[in-house]
Design goal:
Organism: Parathielavia appendiculata
Strand order of the largest sheet: 15-12-14-13-18-19-17-20
Shape: globular
InterPro entries: BBE, FAD-bd_PCMH, FAD-bd_PCMH-like_sf, FAD-bd_PCMH_sub2, FAD-linked_Oxidoreductase, Oxid_FAD_bind_N
Keywords: FAD, Flavoprotein, Oxidoreductase, Signal
Family: Belongs to the oxygen-dependent FAD-linked oxidoreductase family.
Bound molecules: flavin-adenine dinucleotide, 2-acetamido-2-deoxy-beta-D-glucopyranose
GO molecular function: FAD binding; oxidoreductase activity
Strand content: 15-25%
Number of strands: 20
């Protein structure tokens, strides 16, 4: 373990936030409507309000018009109808981990539908399908599915992330190269639409809406219940670390080129999951192999030979043990209360293979600028695509998620820059903006995109939609026009309805 790494956040106890900055005038009307409809709410300034309004990303704190806290589908439906009637925008909040605070609306004055009181997880032993309420966090979901039948589906690593945002917009983790994204395991969803109707979606019911939900769900309604198919939880998984002696820019550029070639040409077997991780003081490969430790050693050796590197640590574990390994948390089964926060700016990319000259300029920046930055930054490069990736086996038009080509979508990146105390510095943005520009310099716009689960709120709405949805944007805009023409489920980077 690496005690210095706290990738799932640090837990900070904050002073009480106040709701008195509210700039909206529709608050009384929304309160009256929710009250008449008997929808539970947080009283402003109450302990629950303070807990529910607290943004995971403290850089982006917003004040809602009201916070509804449903415990039933009918409560969600009534809350959506109130928002439509009063004319306020409405956004569901599941785990609240949006990098841009989109669960709070991404701006002041929205109705927030805080879903975390709805976190039941029930595995049907006959069908092996898990019914998951929309406010459950990933650690809770994984724990309960495992307890009820030793089953699992693939998803991200941090136990506090909400299933709602995560699974509707991708959901990548250390089982994704083997088993795909979280959204690839959704087989059905119950959805509250903008006009206040509740519909079922699946491959056979409301198919277009189902397609849109799996990649862009926040734009089309509030998912009130998920159905996930599952696989038997693997009994043998091997987590590992390879420390890289990438001390100078040419070592980084050459090593990365070898890694890229290995991934692109099918050297990485389906069972392997891997990311390149770098921060100010460590550069390593981290990963999880679906198999025992001797099988891992055999499978990774060709890469290690090319990199002139050795395994630094290997631990064999079962499904929940391997999840705990990368959870960086004592507690896995997390529900309420939850108080983790960070203060950060993050950017993402998905790219095709990079040229040697691009790798050299990235490496120069890494050594000359990033390693001299004293803030707590990190870069993660996920070995996302390639010929053996389960994600890219799914046809490109099967869901609205845009990154399914094994060659074009080779790497998924997360650039993350946080301050451990105090506010984020105004000169901080350029640090990541300048680095990201180097990655895309030699690529045309079809060769890169961005991942809304690592939303960058400094993109304008037009640029964000294109970056997040690529070739699927036109169809999404048509469906937005059909299901939410008045943009009730608005946030600053939401899909806009088609004009014609
Ligand atoms: C510490 C940390 C670790 C992370 N690790 C990973 C990782 O390993 N892999 C990965 O892919 N991502 C990861 N992420 C990103 C994460 O997947 C996204 O931020 C995700 O959107 C968070 O979901 P949420 O429900 O917690 O957030 P929220 O802020 O509650 O929601 C995010 C968005 O989804 C919408 N939404 C939420 N619930 C619903 C619903 N029921 N119906 C419709 N729309 C809904 C919200 O309105 C909002 O627009 C991580 C984020 C953090 C902060
Ligand atoms: C959640 O599960 C518990 C226990 O089975 C049950 O009492 C409760 O009604 C369920 N809640 C919802 C909203 O379904
Ligand atoms: C489902 O199966 C598990 C064993 O795999 C058992 O412990 C559990 O009680 C079963 N649940 C139901 C609801 O039948
Ligand atoms: C860069 O690092 C590599 C590996 O440690 C080493 O072999 C090489 O000599 C170094 N090159 C320079 C220019 O320092
Ligand atoms: C890119 O760099 C790698 C490693 O340094 C090298 O093997 C490869 O031949 C280079 N490719 C090109 C096209 O120059
Ligand atoms: C490890 O897994 C491999 C491949 O599945 C298998 O052949 C081998 O017997 C296993 N070794 C041990 C020690 O379990
Ligand atoms: C490989 O790494 C070792 C250190 O473990 C080093 O001594 C050796 O010079 C390296 N070989 C090459 C070809 O870089
Ligand atoms: C949105 O951002 C893009 C890319 O930065 C820029 O080209 C475009 O002009 C911006 N559009 C608006 C309306 O500001
Ligand atoms: C609500 O919207 C859906 C999807 O557009 C539509 O099928 C349904 O008829 C609408 N219901 C009402 C009551 O308007």
């Amino acid at each position: 373990m690496w005690p210095s790494l706290k990738l799932c956040s640090m837990v900070v106890v904050l002073g009480a936030a106040t709701a008195n900055a509210l700039r909206v005038t529709k608050r009384a009307a929304i309160d009256d409507c929710l009250s008449a409809a008997q929808v539970p709410v947080d009283a402003p300034s109450s302990t629950d309000w303070v807990a529910d309004v607290r943004a995971f990303n403290q850089r982006l704190q917003y004040t809602p018009a009201a916070i509804a806290v449903p415990t039933t589908v009918e409560h969600i439906r009534a809350a959506v109808s109130c928002a439509a009637k009063v004319g306020v925008k409405v956004n569901p909040k599941s785990g609240g981990h949006s990098y841009a605070s989109f669960g709070l609306g991404g701006e002041d004055g929205h109705l927030v539908v805080q879903l975390d009181r709805m976190n039941n997880v029930t595995l049907d032993n006959a069908t092996q399908i898990a019914t998951v309420q929309p406010g459950a966090r990933l650690g809770h979901v994984a724990t309960l599915i495992y307890q009820q039948g030793k089953r699992a589906f693939s998803h991200g690593t941090c136990p506090g992330v909400g299933v709602g945002g995560h699974a509707l917009h991708g959901g990548f983790g250390f089982s994704s190269h083997t088993y795909g994204l979280a959204l690839d395991w959704i087989v059905g969803a119950t959805v509250v639409l903008a006009n206040g109707t509740v519909v079922e979606t699946s491959e056979t019911q409301n198919k277009d809406l189902f397609w849109a939900l799996k990649g862009a769900g926040s734009n089309f309604g509030i998912v009130a219940s998920f159905r996930f198919k599952t696989f038997p939880a693997p009994t043998e998984l091997s987590t590992y670390v390879v420390n890289l002696r990438w001390t100078n820019a040419s070592a980084i550029a050459e090593g990365w080129a070898s890694l890229q070639d290995w991934l692109k040409t099918g050297g990485m077997p389906r069972e392997m999951n891997m990311r390149l991780f770098g921060n100010g003081f460590q550069t390593q490969l981290q990963g999880m192999y679906h198999g025992n430790s001797s099988a891992l050693r055999t499978a990774i050796q060709p890469l290690l030979t090319r990199l002139n590197a050795t395994l630094s640590s290997v631990e064999q574990d079962d499904w929940m043990g391997a999840f705990a390994h990368y959870a960086y948390s004592q507690q896995i089964d997390i529900t309420r209360p939850y108080s983790a926060t960070e203060t950060f700016y993050s950017k993402s990319l998905v790219t095709s293979a990079l040229s040697n000259s691009t790798l050299q300029s990235i490496a120069n920046y890494w050594v000359n600028t990033a390693r001299r930055n004293s803030r707590s930054w990190y870069l993660m490069v996920d070995m996302y695509g390639g010929p053996n990736s389960a994600i890219t086996k799914v046809p490109a038009d099967a869901t609205s998620f845009a990154y399914r080509d094994p060659n074009t979508h080779l790497f998924l990146y997360q650039f993350y820059d946080r301050t451990m105390r105090g506010s984020y510095p105004s000169d901080g943005f350029a640090f990541l903006d300048d680095w990201v520009k180097l990655f895309t310099a030699g690529l045309d716009t079809t060769q890169w995109g961005m991942y809304i689960n690592y939303a960058d709120p400094r993109l304008n709405q037009t640029a964000a939609q294109e970056a997040y949805y690529g070739q699927n944007l036109a169809r999404l805009r048509q469906l937005k026009k059909q299901f939410d023409p008045a943009e009730l489920f608005y946030y600053p980077q939401a899909v806009e309805p088609a004009k014609a």
